[in-house]
Design goal:
This is Putative tricarboxylic transport membrane protein. Keywords: Membrane, Transmembrane, Transmembrane helix. It holds the Pfam family TctA. A hairpin with a 6-residue loop joins strand 1 and strand 2. Strands 1-2 form a two-stranded antiparallel sheet. By secondary structure, it is an all-alpha fold. It contains 24 helices and 2 strands. Helix content is 72%, strand content 1%. It starts with a helix and ends with a helix. The chain has one domain.
Length: 512
């Protein structure tokens, strides 16, 4: 687990010329997608997965991670310049980034966002590297009964935290269970829900399903909500020649070091909890920073503390959301779930055994993450003015090109028209889920984890001989099940009451 030669070999593999070229390409693609309103990093990852089929596993994962990291930086560009978040996690950045740009300091705001994003991303990666292996060692001490209880806890927490209703979250997860059941039963090898179709004997392919439910449904949502003749155009130009308005000194960056460190802690914790994500981290960090400030009235007027709080926190999630994936095999968010599909395509099973079976790959991935951070910083610093022009691309062109790429990706990834047909169906299903408030995150995570859940159930039944009283010999499992019940209580009816009370209060304040 801690073989120094293995670690050095893995890091050396990450620094090959081929790997670095793919990291650079991933960062550039991610930044372009992030800077283009209407597109999303999830969409880019879903489309990019089929491209990685012919690549070495390390190169493939490095490329996808780089796309994810680049998108976090690129998403801040339209948030700051036109007050339209390029990605959901950059929405909180607009609160102070756009006012600073309107004051004639767009370059300064962009650089603030870049530097704090780099700090948050790099720091969370270092934390991941330091704690992932020890946590994996602890996870290996857990048997099938404990793993089953842990997965039940993960489902209840994700269903409760994502979306406005735990009932809808659990319904979305149940739908994921249902679709994941299509194919052959793992215990008896008998067909389930195949309806005599040979294409369904292997189940619904994750790539086609994720491209449809995530990428194409978002495109559908964007097309429906785009008005005729509407275009994305930057209303703020970044032609400032004043050094004070276009440069950020070390002293200015370090002036908010305590805000950044607090945001790093918030983002890392949020990222390590499955289901929360970058958007939650950014708004939570901003809210805490504003409430703890002596002059909260300055927030929302272009205060650099607001940019520091949001960009550090949402970028810290990028590395931290791999903690549950690498240690327990549970995706922290949708981006991590797509990385699971990429790993599985290359015959690699995520989880605590990954460090023993693929230690060189894991440490190579860690090295690639560190390289991607510095590439992200350099490319964004050099191309900042160009990314600002990307946001003026007409939505009609963007949506049409992205839709074509999605269908092509599904066709190539899963073998033909049947996969494309599944992607189209899931695009409609995903759009309806978004419209009615059902969590796509809970649905995707349930779909991915169901095979492992079924395997854990079979193993747990064999160990306990079907006797539920045997749980007394598994205190860790009992504790996890108690936490699952508690999460249903506190994130379910009680959580909904709190949300309704908050909405009523907000409505009263607005009316007043």
């Amino acid at each position: 687990m801690f073989d120094l030669d293995l670690i050095i070999s893995g890091l050396a593999n990450a620094m090959t010329l081929t790997n670095i070229c793919y990291i650079l390409a991933g960062v550039v693609i991610g930044q372009i997608v992030g800077a283009t309103p209407g597109l999303s990093i999830i969409m880019a990852l879903a489309i990019a997965i089929p491209i990685t089929f012919a690549l070495d596993p390390l190169t493939a994962i490095s490329f996808l991670i780089s796309v994810n990291k680049g998108g976090t930086v690129g998403g801040a560009v339209p948030s700051i310049l036109i007050n339209v978040p390029g990605t959901p996690e950059s929405a909180a950045t607009a609160l102070d980034g756009h006012p600073m740009a309107k004051k004639g300091k767009p370059l300064k705001a962009l650089k603030y966002g870049l530097y704090y994003s780099f700090f948050g991303d790099l720091s969370s990666d270092i934390i991941l590297i330091l704690i992932a292996a020890p946590l994996a060692v602890l996870a290996l001490q857990m048997g099938p009964v404990e793993i089953l209880a842990l997965m039940i806890l993960a489902f209840t927490v994700i269903s409760g935290l994502v979306g406005n209703s735990m009932i809808k979250g659990l319904t979305a997860a149940a739908f994921g269970f249902l679709l994941a059941s299509v194919g052959l039963d793992p215990a008896t090898a008998s067909p389930r829900f195949t309806f005599g179709m040979l294409d369904l004997y292997d189940g619904l392919h994750l790539t086609a399903l994720s491209i449809g439910a995530l990428a194409m449904s978002e495109l559908l949502h964007g097309m429906v909500n785009t008005r005729r003749g509407e275009k994305s155009a930057a209303s703020i130009k970044i032609n400032s020649k004043s050094k004070e308005d276009s440069h950020v000194s070390w002293a200015e960056v370090l002036a908010n070091k305590f805000v950044a460190f607090r945001a790093l802690i918030i983002g890392t914790i949020i990222g390590a909890i499955p289901g929360l994500g970058s958007t939650t981290a950014g708004f939570l960090s901003y809210s805490i920073t504003k409430q703890s400030a002596k002059d909260p009235e300055k927030f929302g007027t272009g205060d650099p503390r607001g940019i520091a709080a949001t960009e550090t926190a949402n970028s810290a999630v990028v590395g931290a959301n791999l903690i549950p994936l690498l240690t327990l095999g549970i995706p922290g968010n949708i981006a991590a779930a797509l990385l699971v599909s990429a790993l599985m395509i290359h015959g690699i099973q995520p989880g605590p055994l990954l460090f023993e079976e693929q230690g060189e790959l894991v440490y190579g991935m860690f090295g690639a993450m560190l390289i991607a951070n510095f590439c992200n910083l350099g490319i964004a610093q050099f191309c900042m003015r160009f990314w600002a022009k990307v946001i003026s691309a007409p939505k009609t062109v963007v949506f049409a090109a992205a839709l074509l790429l999605c269908l092509t990706g599904a066709y190539v990834a899963d073998g033909g028209t049947f996969a494309a047909f599944i992607a189209i169906i899931m695009a409609v299903v995903g759009y309806l889920m978004r419209m009615f408030g059902y969590s796509i995150v809970a649905f995707i995570v349930a779909f991915i984890l169901t095979p492992q859940l079924e395997e854990s159930i079979i193993q747990a039944r064999l160990i306990t001989d079907g006797d539920i009283t045997m749980l007394v010999y598994h205190p860790i499992a009992i504790a996890l099940l108690v936490l699952s019940v508690a999460s249903v209580v506190f994130l379910g009816p009680r959580g909904n009451r709190k949300k309704k009370a908050k909405n009523v209060t907000a409505g009263d304040e607005k009316n007043a």
